[in-house]
């Protein structure tokens, strides 16, 4: 289950897993939608964390939620 309340912000930097720091892979790219979200999954065999990234440009929106 993806926890959307723990949305992270992404910018030009490569996205890494907040748990173990491994470079994550995009499993769902909604960056072209109004929400500008990307769902990432950690490739770590013992982690497999899934997390949501939100584009930096939406910082104001993220704060107002
Ligand atoms: Zn991880």
- β-strand percent reads 25-35%
Order of strands in the sheet with the most strands?
Answer: 1-4-3-2
Number of helices: 1
Shape type: globular
How many domains make up the coordinates? 1
The helix-and-strand class reads mainly beta
Q: Terminal Cα separation, in Å?
A: 21 Å
- Please tell me how large the radius of gyration is: 11 Å
Mean pLDDT, rounded to whole units?
Answer: 80
Write down how many β-strands occur, each being a DSSP E stretch of 2 or more residues. Answer: 4
Tell me which ligands are bound: zinc ion
Q: What portion of residues is helical?
A: under 10%
The biggest beta sheet reads: 4 strands, mixed
SSE order, as H and E?
A: EEEEH
Which segments are poorly predicted (pLDDT under 50) over 5 or more consecutive residues? none
Describe what you observe in this structure.
- With 65 residues, the chain is mainly β.
- The chain has one domain (4-58).
- Helices cover 9% and strands 31% of the residues.
- The chain has 1 helix and 4 strands.
- The protein has a 4-stranded mixed sheet with strand order 1-4-3-2, with no helix packed on it.
- The longest helix is centred in the C-terminal third of the chain and has 6 residues, at 59-64.
- The protein is globular.
- The two termini are 21 Å apart.
- The structure holds zinc ion.
- Zinc ion binds next to loops.
